[in-house]
Design a protein that fits this description.
There is one protein chain. β9 and β10 form a beta hairpin. The protein has a five-stranded antiparallel sheet with strand order 2-1-5-4-3, sandwiched between helices. A five-stranded mixed sheet has the order 8-7-6-10-9. It has eight helices and ten strands. The chain is an alpha+beta fold.
Length: 293
C-alpha cells in the first residue's frame, strides 16, 4: 500500500510539473500573440502612413504636371508675343523706373545701330538728340500712366537721325505693381519731310499767285463748301472768313449769268475725271486755279 501511495504521489508531482510547464508555454504563447497583434497594428499604421504619403506624392506630382503644363503654355505665349514684337517695324522698348532699358526689339537695334546686349541696362535718353526731353517723356508716363505722340529724334551711331512719335504706357505685374514703361516709336521722318515739302510748295504757290494775281480755290463736292485763298477774297472783294470757307452760292452768284452754266459744266467734268481745272470768269477778267476735293 505504501508503495502504491508513493507511486501516485510521484504521478501527481509529474502531472503538476507538466501543468506548470504547459502553463508557462501558454503564457509565452499569449505574450507572443500580444506582440504579434501589436506588430500587426503597427504594420497597419505604417501602411496607412505610406498610403497617405503616396496620396500626397500623387497630388504633388499632379500639381507639378499642372505647373509644367502652365509653364509650357506660358512659354508658347511668350514666344508668340516675342515673335510679334520682333515682327514690328516700329522700335519697341521697355524702360525701368530708373530710366534704364530693360529690353528692345530688332527695330530698336536697327534704328540706333547698337546691339541689343549693349542697349540693355543703359540710359534710354542716351539715344536721342534731346536727352533731357526723352527723360521728361518717360517720367511723364510714370506720372500720368501714358503719353501719346511724344515727338523725339533718335540718333544712329553713324549720325543718321530718325524723327519719331512715341506712344508709351506703364505695365504692371499680377499684383498691380508698376514694373516699368512700354514704349513704341512710330517713324515719321518721311511724313515730316513730305509735310515740309508741302509747306514749301504751298508757300511758293502763295508767292506766285500773289505776284501774278491768280486766285486759288478748292471745292468740296461732299459739303458743297469752297475754300478760297487770300487772293480770291481780294479778287471778289469779299471780306475774308476765318477758315477761308464760303458757300457755293457766294461763288455762283458772282459769276456772270451767261457764263454760269459753262463754268458749272467744267466743274462737273472735273469731278468726273478728278483733275485740276482752270476756269475763267468774265466777272473778274482774271484766271483762277480750282481743285475739286
Amino acid at each position: 500500500m505504501a508503495k502504491i501511495k508513493e507511486l501516485k504521489e510521484d504521478e501527481l508531482t509529474l502531472a503538476r510539473k507538466e501543468i506548470a510547464t504547459q502553463k508557462e508555454a501558454n503564457e509565452k504563447l499569449s505574450a507572443e500573440l500580444i506582440l504579434l497583434q501589436k506588430e500587426l497594428v503597427f504594420q497597419d499604421e505604417e501602411k496607412g502612413k505610406r498610403a497617405a504619403e503616396l496620396s500626397i506624392a500623387d497630388k504633388e506630382l499632379a500639381y507639378q504636371d499642372e505647373e509644367k503644363e502652365k509653364r509650357a503654355a506660358e512659354l508658347i505665349i511668350a514666344k508668340y508675343a516675342r515673335s510679334l514684337i520682333e515682327a514690328s517695324l516700329d522700335p519697341l522698348v521697355t524702360i525701368s523706373a530708373a530710366g534704364k532699358i530693360l529690353d528692345v526689339n530688332e527695330a530698336s537695334v536697327k534704328v540706333t545701330g547698337v546691339p541689343r546686349e549693349k542697349l540693355i541696362d543703359t540710359d534710354f535718353s542716351n539715344y536721342f538728340t534731346e536727352p533731357q526731353k526723352a527723360q521728361e517723356g518717360y517720367q511723364q508716363v510714370f506720372e500720368k500712366g501714358f503719353v501719346a505722340d511724344y515727338p523725339l529724334t533718335i540718333k544712329h551711331k553713324n549720325g543718321d537721325l530718325t524723327d519719331v512719335l512715341y506712344n508709351a504706357s506703364i505695365y504692371k505685374d499680377d499684383k498691380g505693381n508698376v514694373l516699368g514703361v512700354f514704349a513704341a516709336a512710330r517713324d515719321v521722318t518721311g511724313a515730316k519731310e513730305a509735310q515740309e515739302k508741302l509747306q514749301a510748295s504751298e508757300e511758293r504757290i502763295r508767292l506766285a499767285t500773289t505776284a501774278s494775281g491768280v486766285g486759288v480755290w478748292e471745292w468740296n463736292v461732299i459739303t458743297n463748301k469752297i475754300r478760297w485763298d487770300a487772293q480770291m477774297f481780294r479778287i471778289y472783294g469779299v471780306a475774308p472768313t476765318a477758315d477761308g470757307l464760303i458757300e457755293y452760292s457766294t461763288w455762283s452768284n458772282a459769276v456772270a449769268p451767261e457764263d454760269l452754266a459753262a463754268q458749272e459744266k467744267i466743274l462737273q467734268d472735273t469731278v468726273k475725271i478728278l483733275l485740276p481745272a482752270i476756269v475763267h470768269s468774265k466777272f473778274t477778267g482774271q484766271m483762277m486755279v480750282c481743285s475739286v476735293l
